Amino acid sequence: MFLLAIIVILSYLVGAIPTSIIVSKAVKGIDIRQHGSGNAGGTNVMRVLGWKHGVMVIILDALKGVLAVIVVARLHYGGLPFANISPFDDFTLIQIIAGISAVIGHIWTVFAGFKGGKGIATALGMLLMIVTIDMLIAVGVFFIVVTISRYVSLGSVLAAVTVPSAMFFRENVLHDSITGYNTLLPFVIAVSLLVIYTHRKNVVRILNGTENKLSFKKKN
Question: Total structural domains in the chain?
């Protein structure tokens, strides 16, 4: 149990690294939470500092999820402190636990008063390592929606919905055999609902017509 607790804590701390705040202070000497939408995420950095810095933050946030899954999770050895009733091997289950811990760390970061980003990029990095095909489909949906609507938040929400939907379609319509489907699907749904929950204010603004649209104009 002690080792599992260490993995959870380390994954949380990796996810909690406030990349957007670090980048905004390094580039312009500002706290990104006091500008734009006030969110400590890559999309707000893109609005305030330009698309290049925004993309950099999004990539760094995604890497936090990747690191938790493929690096921190490898600290695990031996058996689990509880009965593994899932269809996954012990290490895959540890990866899932580490990944969700990183997403929680990003959303509620201890390094910035528990006020972080929305978790979409970190969840992207985590899920790319676990459900690669479905995440690539979701990434495609994200870029199509953002290109057409210019709403990053709408793309994020629809991408979150796409992941479990793609899994369900592949397993039940195309009859692909997804390892651990019955356990993995509820987990992915839970992550997707978390991402949607963190975007709830954006959804309201979209419905009200007050949500900011993405611009690729160069920032001074």
Answer: 1
Residue 220: pLDDT band with limits 50, 70, 90: low
Q: Note whether residue 41 is domain-resident.
A: yes
The verdict on residue 213 lying in a domain is: no
* Nearest residue to 109 via CA among 98, 118, 99, 120: 118
Give me 186's structure tokens. Answer: 């509820």
Q: Tokens representing 165?
A: 């939907």
Confidence tier at 212 by pLDDT (50, 70, 90): confident
Pick from 142, 163, 137, 164: nearest CA to 154: 142
Q: Name the token pair of 121.
A: 């990029």
Specify if 219 maps to a domain.
no
pTM of the model: 0.77
Q: Which domain holds residue 69?
A: 2-208
> Tens digits of per-residue pLDDT, 110-149?
999 998 888 888 988 988 888 889 999 999 999 999 999 9
What distance in Å separates the CA atoms of residue 122 and residue 97, rounded to the nearest whole number? Answer: 14
Q: Where residue 219 falls among pLDDT bands split at 50, 70, 90?
A: low
With respect to residue 215, please indicate whether it lies within any of the assigned structural domains.
no
**Residue bearing the bigger pLDDT, 177 or 57:** 57
